[in-house]
Every structure is written in structure tokens, then in C-alpha cells.
Amino acid sequence: MASVLEELQKDLEEVKVLLEKSTRKRLRDTLTSEKSKIETELKNKMQQKSQKKPELDNEKPAAVVAPLTTGYTVKIRWDQSDKFVKIYITLTGVHQVPTENVQVHFTERSFDLLVKNLNGKNYSMIVNNLLKPISVESSSKKVKTDTVIILCRKKAENTRWDYLTQVEKECKEKEKPSYDTEADPSEGLMNVLKKIYEDGDDDMKRTINKAWVESREKQAREDTEF
User: Fold this and answer.
1) Model pTM score
2) β-strands 121-127, 110-118 pairing
């Protein structure tokens, strides 16, 4: 992460130098846009670095189970087959309560689980905005040892769900970096400058060459100082 941040910072400094030297409107507009992208990427990377925590396991929490009385939460996990999305909710002792005490209400894009009188408490979980529609009539539940399994029947079979809910999808897409994390962070900037150079006239090419040389000379001086 540190090396990525350093490379992005160098890219930003280089774009600033190029902006200072450029006079052509088209070039300045493109560089200004690239500067904004790099600044946004730097901000996102720094936030990820400060908020990153070690993963406890490979299961992604999609929701939490919370009781009507406070003080208990648990992660859930889910998987899927061609016909069903299966949500596994761990509740210790749930297999010991009467069958009628475990109730699930389905709609086309949600489900609501209610477990009554489990060790003297009621537990409720609602998952809204499922990623895709489900068949209410064909969805069901199973109670296993310490686990409730919610079986949501896909309306469109043989389709893959990348997320459990629409909200999760939107959050994950917002987190996606604008740069390929496996690629050189400078590659995006290099491609932009290459495109401008190839499409530009002779004056623009001279401007880019001059700004590029001066930028490299400045960076070399700074590296020498350290």
C-alpha cells in the first residue's frame, strides 16, 4: 500500500508540473481532469489504509442478526446454487425451540426472520433490497443445529448473484479503485499523456516534450537532495 501511495503522489506532482508548463487549453483540461482523478485515488487509498482491519475469516458479513432486546449480534454467510440463494444464520440453541417459533416472511425482494422465545429472548432480522427478485411461494427455511438456513428461490434460475443485496453492491462498487491495484499506478497517467501526444499537433507535442523534460529534471534534483 505504501509504494502505491508513493507512486500516486509522484504522479500527482508530475501532473502539477506539466500543468504549470502547459499553455494549450485541451492539454490543460485533460491534465486537470487527470489531476482530479489522482487526488481522489490518493484520498481513497489513504482512507482504506487507515480503516483496514485484518479479516477474521473468509466469510463476508452481509447483514447482522439483532434481537428485539439489545446485546447480541452475529454475522451471517451465504452461498448459492443454480436455483437458490442460501443464507446461513447462526443462533445457538435455535434447533431446540418449537418449529412454529421460527418464522420467515418473504417478499419478492426481502425476507424477515423472527425467532421467538429462544432462551427467553426474541430475535429478529430483516434483509431488504435483495439483489434480484425471488419466488415468494418457492422460498423456505430449514432449521439445523444452531443454524437457520433461509432458502430464497431465484426467479431467474442459472443467474449468478455477486452480492446478497443491492445496497451491498452499491457500497462495493463505490469502493472499487479507479486504478488497477495489480498494475503500475503510473500507467494511467502515462496512457493519458501518450494519447494526448499521439492526437496532438506539432505545437502540442513540443509543449508536452518540454514539460516532460522539465518534470523529470525536477524529480531528479529532488531525488538527489534526499
Assistant:
1) 0.49
2) antiparallel
